[in-house]
């Protein structure tokens, strides 16, 4: 079989040059033969096997790419099944298992596909095929169906970023040309994300799928369907909870912003409250990402929606400003460098300034990083210029509150000191009482007793406060009453 295939490749190795010279009627037939020829697969894990045949196939694939790009009239109805068959034979395969416990996408190099010299050309050929002016979706839909799309989506789990980039283009072209597959594609992407969030937390192509979704969301008609709003709430927003957020956060934030640009009313009841709900508690890197995403949301928010979320939002920003991690505090303070956000803050300074003032004033004097202190001084200065009367009132209230707190702290310290002294005193008394109790259990001869101990101040207190101890002492020294 290999010998026969080798002969086929050799016989057709000059297909393109012959094809340009043959009549237009013969070109489609030669094209189909080339497609059939390229269905044979080679083992690229063995780098020394079938080198000539691999090169023949690579050359043939190059010829097919050029032919699809340059020729006209080649897309007959018989061509579609052969193209889909050739593409399916080459790209659809079982991906090697990935040990998610050991592989760190941020640190480790991905495993590159060994057969990429051929796969790259096949993807390029298929993209040119889909983009051709002669391409007819009504004919192709018989072969590019739900099963084909499902297998295509499974390939997004490939570790090779080059393949995922090609798959992104292919899926985007299919979504654009096959209207009947759009709902199915969205549903399957939903399923992939739900499985990723709630089950595996491992899928290599999340960023690429989100990039496709960004353009899909941009094309949604208004008003948004309930299905699309559910997708935002149940699928997109929970993606913020996964550990590998940094790998796809930029694409995710873009999708969220696209939704809010389409329907600004989603800001107050859905997006910002959910984002604050998922706010990271122990990961400063994720906090910085969340702050960046919030700024992107504020860049497109309408003033009427901003008023509804400002209190909830700036309470979180105040906590971030107070963070001992300087990158978190710095990212939060950079909001005051954004002109649009500054205009929103200025319009609502009477609400925002009381929320932020205490944190800003305290951190300006206590933060360990001088750069953060300098940024805070700039923010305080901006607030003072916005509303000087309110600023002075808050400053006076803050100082009086601090004085009351210091007074309470002093009273609390004094109380604890008295309690410690009382505890120490009672400890001494308890030891003396224990000695008295033990002495009674023994005869006078066995345990000598110093009557002068009664003159001790602690003993006097015991005699005054503990009637049982007094009775014991009388019984010990004077006998029963």
Automatic annotation (TrEMBL):
Protein family membership: Belongs to the phosphatase 2A regulatory subunit B56 family.
InterPro entries documented for this protein: ARM-like, ARM-type_fold, PP2A_B56
Signal peptide: 1-24
GO cellular component: cytosol; nucleus; protein phosphatase type 2A complex
A molecular function GO annotation: protein phosphatase activator activity
GO biological process, one term: signal transduction
Pfam families: B56
Top-rank taxon: Eukaryota
Protein name in the entry: Serine/threonine protein phosphatase 2A regulatory subunit
């Amino acid at each position: 079989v290999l010998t026969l295939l080798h002969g086929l490749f050799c016989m057709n190795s000059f297909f393109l040059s012959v094809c340009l010279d043959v009549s237009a009627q013969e070109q489609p037939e030669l094209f189909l033969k080339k497609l059939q020829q390229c269905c044979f697969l080679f083992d690229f894990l063995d780098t020394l096997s079938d080198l000539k045949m691999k090169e023949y196939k690579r050359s043939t694939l190059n010829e097919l790419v050029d032919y699809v790009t340059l020729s006209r009239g080649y897309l007959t109805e018989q061509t579609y099944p052969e193209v889909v068959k050739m593409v399916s034979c080459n790209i659809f395969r079982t991906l090697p298992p990935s040990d998610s416990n050991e592989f760190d996408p941020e640190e480790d190099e991905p495993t590159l596909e060994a057969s990429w010299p051929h796969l790259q050309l096949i993807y390029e050929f298929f993209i040119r095929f889909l983009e051709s002016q002669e391409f007819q979706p009504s004919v192709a839909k018989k072969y590019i169906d739900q099963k084909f799309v499902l297998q295509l989506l499974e390939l997004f789990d490939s570790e090779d970023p080059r393949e995922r980039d090609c798959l992104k283009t292919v899926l985007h072209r299919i979504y654009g040309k096959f209207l009947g597959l759009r709902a199915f594609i969205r549903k399957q992407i939903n399923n992939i994300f739900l499985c990723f969030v709630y089950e595996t937390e491992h899928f290599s192509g999340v960023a690429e799928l989100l990039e496709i979704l960004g353009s899909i969301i941009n094309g949604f008609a208004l008003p948004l369907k309930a299905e699309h709003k559910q997708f935002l709430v149940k699928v997109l927003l929970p993606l913020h909870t996964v550990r590998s957020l940094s790998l796809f956060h930029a694409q995710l934030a873009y999708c969220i912003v696209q939704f809010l640009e389409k329907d600004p009313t989603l800001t107050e009841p859905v997006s910002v409250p959910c984002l604050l709900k998922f706010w990271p508690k122990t990961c400063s890197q994720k906090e910085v990402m969340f702050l960046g995403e919030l700024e992107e949301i504020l860049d497109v928010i309408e003033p009427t929606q901003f008023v509804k979320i400002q209190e909830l939002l700036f309470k979180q920003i105040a906590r971030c400003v107070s963070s001992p991690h300087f990158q978190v505090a710095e990212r939060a303070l950079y909001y005051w460098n954004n002109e649009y956000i500054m205009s929103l803050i200025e319009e609502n300074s009477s609400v925002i300034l009381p929320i932020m003032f205490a944190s800003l004033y305290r951190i300006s004097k206590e933060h360990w990083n001088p750069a953060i202190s300098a940024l805070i001084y700039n923010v305080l200065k901006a607030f003072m210029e916005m509303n000087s009367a309110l600023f002075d009132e808050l400053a006076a209230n803050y100082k009086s509150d601090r004085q009351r707190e210091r007074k309470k702290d002093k009273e609390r310290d004094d109380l604890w000191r008295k309690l410690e002294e009382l505890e120490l005193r009672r400890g001494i008394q308890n030891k003396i009482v224990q000695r008295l109790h033990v002495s009674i259990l023994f005869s006078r001869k066995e345990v000598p007793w110093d009557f002068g101990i009664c003159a001790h101040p602690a003993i006097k207190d015991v005699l005054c406060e503990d009637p049982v101890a007094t009775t014991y002492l009388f019984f010990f020294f004077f006998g029963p009453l």
